[in-house]
Write a structure and sequence with these properties.
Layout (H helix, E strand, L loop, with lengths): L9 H15 L1 H20 L3 H25 L6 H6 L5 H26 L2 H8 L5 H6 L3 H18 L2 H8 L3 H14 L1 H29 L5 H36 L6
Helix pairs in contact: 1-11, 1-12, 2-3, 2-12, 3-5, 3-12, 5-8, 5-9, 8-10, 9-10, 11-12
């Protein structure tokens, strides 16, 4: 398994590559992203078992999105079936990865209870564990930072693991290992990539929304919000999410190389 070490600027380029892939077929990639999220949301409607099932299939669905980006990048056809095709490749390992990630997440949140008495854990699971005063007082800041710190190595190990398991047939241990090594060797690129995500997915949409509100301030507020601002922001959100998911494939392709894909 060859792992390339890239310069920091590569992190900026991943988003540009992701947008280029999105432009090849915007409706298709947007449809796949919407289907992905609807599948997860519908499963989460079921109490407890639905959340577990969603966690188990997320690795396979993420591979499906990567496959769609790969097909579009190569000028090949992709469709709705591409999203679910990822569930068919090395499914036991993908399910194991989903279960392991869920256990790690719950374990880290459980450790945060040593700091805040379980408030963040309850808040994350049910959304009812922390009242408004607790959130506004900043009591969850320290446990949140604690969770983010412990989750960082977990995310590094998980970032490429599903696609390495599906496309390369690696075991759970090997896929996690090579994913962690790839992220560790390219931490500068991922740092720049994170900064690019903040700008692209946070700052730019915020500026667009602020400009729209300022420009349309004199118009009928309810009408403009319902028929102009909301639909436009939904389109922008779909473009952003589609580009980001395609950029995941771009990072994989640049680090592991197209010749490594089986």
């Amino acid at each position: 398994m060859q792992v390339q070490t890239l310069p920091a600027a590569a992190g900026w380029a991943w988003l540009g590559t992701g947008f280029a892939i999105f432009r090849r077929n915007p409706p298709l990639l947007a449809m796949l992203v919407v289907t992905y999220w609807l599948t997860i949301l519908l499963l989460n409607v079921l109490p407890v078992i639905g959340a577990v099932a969603a966690s188990l299939i997320i690795p396979g669905l993420s591979v499906g999105l990567m496959q769609a980006a790969r097909d579009l990048d190569r000028g090949q056809k992709a469709g709705l079936q591409t999203l679910f095709s990822g569930l068919q490749r090395n499914p036991r390992t993908l399910i194991a990865l989903g279960a392991l990630y869920l256990c790690c997440t719950l374990g880290v949140l459980g450790l945060s209870a040593l700091i805040d008495g379980g408030q963040l854990l309850s808040f994350m699971i049910s959304g009812k564990g922390a009242d408004k005063e607790t959130v506004e007082s900043g009591e969850l800041v320290l446990p949140s930072l604690f969770v983010m710190t412990l989750m960082l190595p977990v995310l590094m190990a998980y970032w490429f693991a599903p696609v390495l398991a599906a496309w390369h047939g690696l075991s759970v241990g090997k896929s996690l290992f090579f994913s962690f090594v790839a992220c560790w060797l390219n931490w500068r690129a991922f740092l720049f990539y994170s900064a690019a995500l903040v700008v692209f997915a946070g700052v730019v949409p915020g500026l667009v929304f602020g400009i729209l509100v300022a420009v349309l301030a004199g118009a009928e507020g309810g009408f403009m919000t319902a028929f102009v601002i909301t639909p436009l922001m939904m389109v922008i959100a779909l473009m952003i999410f589609s580009t980001v998911y395609a950029s995941f494939y771009a990072s994989y392709r640049d680090i592991f190389g197209p010749s490594e894909i089986v």
